[in-house]
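Appendix B: complex inputs.
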Amino acid sequence: MWSLKLSDMTKIGVLISGSGSNLQSIIEAIKVGEIGAEIAVVISNDETAYGLTRATDNGIPVKVIKHGDYAERQEFDKELVRVLRECEVELVVLAGFMRVVGTVLLEAFPDRVINIHPAILPAFPGTDGQAQAFVYGVKLAGCTVHFVDEKIDHGPIIIQAAVPVLSGDSESDLKARILRCEHKIFPYAIALYCSGKLHIDGRRVIIDGVDDVLLAQQSLISCPGLN
Amino acid sequence: MWSLKLSDMTKIGVLISGSGSNLQSIIEAIKVGEIGAEIAVVISNDETAYGLTRATDNGIPVKVIKHGDYAERQEFDKELVRVLRECEVELVVLAGFMRVVGTVLLEAFPDRVINIHPAILPAFPGTDGQAQAFVYGVKLAGCTVHFVDEKIDHGPIIIQAAVPVLSGDSESDLKARILRCEHKIFPYAIALYCSGKLHIDGRRVIIDGVDDVLLAQQSLISCPGLN
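Resulting structure:
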């Protein structure tokens, strides 16, 4: 078991592929001081990703690295690592990054890559977890922030949250409810990481110095108005 | 889509194998009028099951049907069906019944067999869902009440509930927390069934005439004292 203590103002690199709403929630949490970090770079594999605009609007350096420009996935990963190191990134945050990261990146940032997945893992890993859950007919859906390992949506879990599936829900209603939930727990998990409160012990993530009740409240998202 | 309307005072048969704490929660809910039903019979495949004592203490007829007395599972199932029909059972409730029920029972009681499983299905089906979840390192565990179909822990889901996994938890702490949760949602699901509010539509269970907020509250078990 070892601690993931970082510098006082952790430099994080955020990898995106799309609209970057999770990136936005991280930016806001940093602004109000909930996360002791700065975003050193936002990298997108898609030059049209709206998240790049969000970053630029907030004065954050951006970089486009198109996976299509690389014949081998390893070469793409090496370029990611090169840019992340150039920006002195300590924590890599996958925020809707639609590429599977390989061992090149994971070995360069051991236990320093985290991801959010829109399902209560280990249920519904892979693409479109929300749609999988909706079709299955679950009554509870949710999201998971976890460390990334070699298997897809599999590494040690930092925090999970649940939301109800309501009788009148469309798939997009559910997706939106889960997304609002993601925007709460992802910044929270990053804040825990950056303050050195996370320890990995096998498959278990130990969270130090945080009241159990507070953690439970983050997990069991209450929804008075079912927001 | 069709309604599962039963008689005004539904006769239910409860199948157990062990201590019968879920049976007890159903008995209590009937006593206070939360479930419009009567337990017509409690059947155990194990004559030493403490649940038989709970039933007898409450004036409920009991029957022991030992699976070991039958060479074929079908024969065991046929005897279950015979007794359930003799007692005019309309709804079969599996409450910690440690035998897989086969098509003989399911065809005799189509969409009228329900089960509780100690995990947020489809995660951790099969034996000892709580231990599987604990070892996996999830941060949310829970339980599921579902209709039984031919596959194990797979049928349409009626209600699910989540509980947090706390940093200091032992496996038995978690198991106890999930069990307290089972004791809340199992009687609730049975009550919904007996009042004719459940409809099966493919893999989805539609719940009529129940406020969404109330349902969500049942699912997202709040735990001020982490009970």
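The first helix of chain A runs from residue 21 to 31.
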